[in-house]
Amino acid sequence: MYKIFSLNNKLKQYLTIDLDKLYVLLNTSSKGLKSNQILLQRKNFGDNNFNNLNHSFTKQHLYRAFFNPFTIILYIISIISIITDIIYPIQLHQNYSTITIIIIMIILSVIIRFSYEQRSFYRLSKMDTFLNNYIAVKRNNKWIDIPIKNLVVGDYVYLTANTKVPADIRLIKTNSLFISQAILTGESDIIEKHSDIKNIDNMTITNYSNLAFMGTSIISGSGEGIVLNVGTNTLYGSFAQNKTSKITSTSFFKDANSISLTLIKFMAILIPIVSIISILVHGSLLYSFVFALSIAIGLTPELLPMIITTCLVKGSNYLSKQKIILKDIYAMQCFGSMDILCVDKTGTLTSNNIILEYYLDILGNENQKTLDFAYLNSYHLSSYPNHIDNAILKYATIPQKKDYFQQLINKNKRISEIPFDFERKCSSVIIQNEHQKLLITKGDVKELFKHCQYIEYQNKILPIDNKNTQSIHAVIDEMLEDGMKVMAVAYKPLIDTTSIDLESENNLILIGYLAFFDAPKKSSIEAIKKLQSLNVNIKLLTGDNISVATSICKRVGISTTDIITGNELSNLNPAQLDKLIEKTTIFAELTPDQKRMIVTSLQQNGHTVGFLGDGLNDIPAIVEADIGISINEATDSTKDVANVILCQKDLTILHKAIIEGRKTFTNITKYIKITASSNFGNIFSIICASAFLPFLPMTAIQLLLLNILYDILCLILPWDKIDNENYRLPLNWSNHHLGSFMCFFGPLSSIFDIITFLFLYFIFCPLFTNGLLYSELTDIHLQTIYISLFQTGWFLESMWSQILILQMLRTSKIPFLQSNASKPVLITTIIGIILFTGLTFTPFATNLGLTQLPALYFIYLFVIVILYMLLISFAKYSYIAKYKKLI
């Protein structure tokens, strides 16, 4: 649930003082503001816009771009680099190259992510024209319509159903005013608001009955009030300024943190080991510690944040072309990890084109009175039009019936109402005709039947008994089994009643039923099959009747073996609950909180859960899910809390999103695992060499250059092809898998590094130093040549093996034969080897301590790399057999 901010003392004063004093404090009156007061009020209290709020979101995007698990690793490395290269340089001269490169990588990563999130934010902003809508305001004692953005503190406004509250408002008059505060609280409850002043000392701010908050949705009724706060000074403005994306607490960041922790653990283990070995060899404590820190830097992929951001942005841009808008690019990875998708029924599996099929009495005969009362109920409700009310009202527009229903409305005037809510599952209105006042209630059959004491059949009113109860259920059950949604209609006469409350909905007379049909989408069957082929378990979470839900699921291919109702769930203990929720596929007759509870239970069982919904009743579950999904036609409150907005409500496009998410995830994982293991192998080789060689096998700048050159090649990875089997299963990161991958493949490269060390030290380098080993040389010039030849030889062997190993480990198949990389990756690999090898033949090589090598060495290099690739090919099959996966 979102954080609710404390109401300041000034606002408390506004809510409790007499109206006359309030008018004085706000420089207004019951006649509204005068024209000459508007500018002064705007100057004193601010504008009703979110310019500052937009700036706040910009700061949030910038903060998230700079501070995430992967950039934090680079910050640690940069601190180590400052120590090892600037404060206590190993080479006795300051080297700014490492810290410069790291800073550049961080800046590029930040720019890529920040620009994407800003673009998504403004795209969503354009979809919400809230502040450009108009509202009725009393000014100069006249009601006029003005844009909401022109409101000022002190304005006297008129609130109507199916709109958003335009500012924080103290209510002066209300008429059955019901409001959803889901945008602030994350709850789907509909709250009645009125102008009464009550004790507010220990109340939560959202419980104030005489205060309507900006951005909340008016479900039904009307009201009048005085504007207290506007723009970013409102509760919504304060809430939004401090809101951070829910994605940061989901599976992505949990897994990302585990990856970061693994790399840090390896650093923590390496530093003391390398320090001890270096002390034994070189004797200097400070030199050894600084050298160990510099070695630890080499473990981490320097382009990690940039590669990840590039992969996520590429995938997100693809989804935007598929009409899927991500508020946060990390939702991209959540699509890749999602293994359970919870969906609402209406509009997701069905066409959301509900048709009224039958209007019946209690025994299933056509009954005009049932339709008349249902029509009066739907017509006089001022709440958001829902699919049921729309179907009833649409039926009454048939040309031959239009005049009849118009006369019916003329004869029955509205007095009051109680709007629908998800606990009662019904709605009521009071109407007045020339004969009497009637309470007419329409709603869920089971819930409404609990409030009925009588039935009406053939104009006779009879008490409900066991016999007619059985007859009633027989009629209902038959329609439910056919997949129809059934609503009950009841009424009772009222005497001298001008308002109603929940107690009024007792002792009702059941008159009959309405039967609706919402056909499954043709695309739903195919979409369900595609999602199941990706091993995404589909669970239906609906408030509808269990029979209707079962019927729809049978038609679209969702298993109906395990079904449970909300009432059955509420009777289970926690131990039973988790097991039952895990295996159940259809959950019917749920409350909004039960939907949320199911999502939470699945997450606790280790699943990454997505929830697709569009109604107020879906909000708690959307907020709780790892990835909350809504549609552009959903209620404003629902869209506000979702992470992803679908511009078309169709499960087919979710199939595309999941595949793209898994492709993105796989390419990110390739980079992390292969690069970390390759770097680990290099470091392991350096540790071994440091124990026996009288000089460094590679300088810090050479090692850093090697990593950067390799990482630059890896920038093409987001465009690599993915084997089909890599996106058939949900994916997640594991520090165990990363550690095992590094420890398995890293030392394999060290085997060939050690062979190369032996070849270079005992065979190759002595060819150019009169056959003498380094330990036998006394000429400083020859020693320099010896070191340069050795370091260049290992530099090339490491570079060739690192680049080619990317081809070997990018797929579990045989590379170049069973699985080819994309053309960009292949071309980049070839060009990279040529350019980086050519670097040793340039004048710049001398500055790096490198030199030209003769053709003899390249013969050896070709042979050793081929042998290395063959070993890796056999090794990866052994790894797959043990861990059941490669990447």
Which key features would you list for this structure?
single chain, 887 residues, alpha/beta, Calcium-transporting ATPase, transmembrane domain, Rossmann fold, Calcium-transporting ATPase, cytoplasmic domain N, 8-stranded mixed sheet, 23 strands, elongated, disordered N terminus
Walk me through this protein's architecture:
The chain is α/β, with parallel strands linked by helices and about 900 residues long. It has three domains: about 60-115 and about 245-315 and about 660-885, Up-down Bundle (Calcium-transporting ATPase, transmembrane domain), CATH 1.20.1110; about 340-350 and about 520-625, Rossmann fold (3-Layer(aba) Sandwich), CATH 3.40.50; about 355-515, Calcium-transporting ATPase, cytoplasmic domain N (3-Layer(aba) Sandwich), CATH 3.40.1110.10. About 50% of the residues lie in helices and about 15% in strands. The strands form three sheets. It has an eight-stranded mixed sheet with strand order 8-23-22-21-9-18-20-19, with helices on both faces. Strands 10, 11, 12, 13, 14, 15, 16 and 17 form an eight-stranded mixed sheet that branches. Helix 5 (about 70-85) runs antiparallel to helix 10 (about 285-295), helix 18 (about 520-535) packs parallel to helix 25 and helix 26 (about 700-715) packs antiparallel against helix 29. The longest helix is centred in the C-terminal third of the chain and has 42 residues, at about 650-690. It is elongated and about 120 Å long.
